Amino acid sequence: xxxxxxxxFTLTINAYFCxxxxxxxxxxxxxxxxxxxxxxxxxxxxxxxxxxxxxxxxLALSYxxxxxxxxxxxxxxxxxxxxxxxxxxxxxxxxxxxxxxYIVRINSVKKDSLVTxxxxxxxxxxxxxxxxxxxxxxYRKRNLIGVTKRLLxxxxxxxxxxxxxxxxxxxxxxxxxWQLYDWSFYVLHKSDAKLEYKKFKRMIYLEPKEISxxxxxxxxxxxxxxxx
Length: 228
Prior knowledge:
This protein is α/β, with parallel strands linked by helices. The protein contains 9 helices and 4 strands.
């Protein structure tokens, strides 16, 4: 019976997350907390995930089937932003593009200018992790030189803005538009972050109104296509 229940859940969750790309307004933790073991079996392979963020990470990973076998380590660190994510140096040098190891660093220190992950609402957390996983999808397409060029682009503000907004757009395309919206809205309008930090976020990333406009545009285009 337990095997049958897991099989049914597997088929349902795969159909929902890996095939259905509709924008879901709210992904409620209460709907999935009892299914954490099944989610770990499906999306937690080769991943080292902190327990306090486990459910949001697994649900975000469910939108990225390409990363199912990728080695990803999540760890708390003293960093100057909420999250950062990179391939490891050794895996860049010695592994194939599709077999790299990644590290996601989660800020562990509360600062006036930053937003810590523990304070972020659940739906918004999924959007933030989804954004970072899109970076991994981008790295998987690039050789060592390509990844190095991408990382060097971060030293130029205009290049960083162009790239991060592209990653935001790809996150919306994955089906995590409203989750990304909630993340952006929380940082800019609900968090205690300093105005300078919020100004930086507005400049580099898509704002809530821009995210909402893209979601509505895609929805309208889909309706038009279905009606033709």
